[in-house]
Design goal:
Layout lengths: L10 E5 L4 E5 L1 H6 L9 E3 L5 E2 L9 H4 L6 E7 L4 E8 L2 E5 L3 H10 L11 E6 L2 E3 L2 E4 L3 E6 H14 L6 H18 L5
Antiparallel strand pairs: 1-2, 1-3, 4-11, 5-6, 5-8, 6-7, 8-11, 9-10
Amino acid sequence: MCAETISDEHQHVVNVEARQLMCVCRGCYLLFTDSSARLRFRAVPDRYIYFSDFELGPGVWDQLEIPVGLAFFFHNSSLGRTTAFYPGPAGATESELPLDAWNDVLATNPDLGIAQSDVEALLIRIPHGGPGGPTVTTTSCHLVPIDACYELVGRMRMLWRGFDGGQDAHREMQQFFDAVDQRSRAPS
């Protein structure tokens, strides 16, 4: 965006129209922090929230038509709807989200409505287990910056081996969720 050198620790903005993340210096980041302004770029905030009361009734995940136990959901303002993605060996895969099923999840969990369009996502992980991988025993839902979701996707893409990802991918995913848990706070 400008000629300023970007340090290893830096922020991101989202190009809302092109659906791209861009690394920026602190000054450029601050130009796009007004979430009420209609801008081409939006600053990615740094808040992590854990929804301890999150409910996902029996069969609801199947209704969302997501074939794995992990996905992130965000409102895409260019499309005017919520989109869902899940990580895999090819990167972020978009799921055709049945909006009625997603609206039921939001109605059951009204606190989820605090996510900012385009720059924050709801990261949901459901119970599962598999050969060689850890077993997740509880459903979790976090609000995270959108760049954290793509960081997870990048990690999985680099480490994915075989059908279920392999031990390295499972270990990396658990480390990612441990870090998200440590940074998360309850909704206020």
